[in-house]
């Protein structure tokens, strides 16, 4: 099965955010000012819906960015006032089109095979699931 990215699309939400982060040295989010440097079809605008309904993004990414890179960006942008805060990429699950996305896949590999849809923001759902080692450590202390 091929995971899909489409859940919600909202063309009116068009913003971009640049963050200085070493992770993005090879596949940075793209500013609207840089659009002429990369063909539009290579850019994907994503936002990430957290379990409380709040969002991170939207942010434009290269379609060659991996799911693991998206997770690192989510961790760096995670609101610090939340009850649960992911610490590492494996604590984060990205869900799109009812599929959990694999870390080694690129955004392009996760796109829907059912044809092109109008341009807009693609929303992915974010689930935080701490690793089993952390859960065992907490339960051993009780």
From TrEMBL:
User: Which Pfam families does the protein's record reference?
Assistant: Rad60-SLD_2 (PF13881)
- Give the domain of life: Eukaryota
Report domain Ubiquitin-like positions.
44-110
- Per its UniProt record, what PROSITE patterns does this chain match? UBIQUITIN_2
Q: Which InterPro entries match?
A: Ubiquitin-like_dom, Ubiquitin-like_domsf, UBL3-like, UBL3-like_ubiquitin_dom
Q: SUPFAM superfamilies annotated for this entry?
A: Ubiquitin-like
Protein name per Swiss-Prot or TrEMBL: Ubiquitin-like domain-containing protein
Q: Which organism is it from?
A: Musa balbisiana
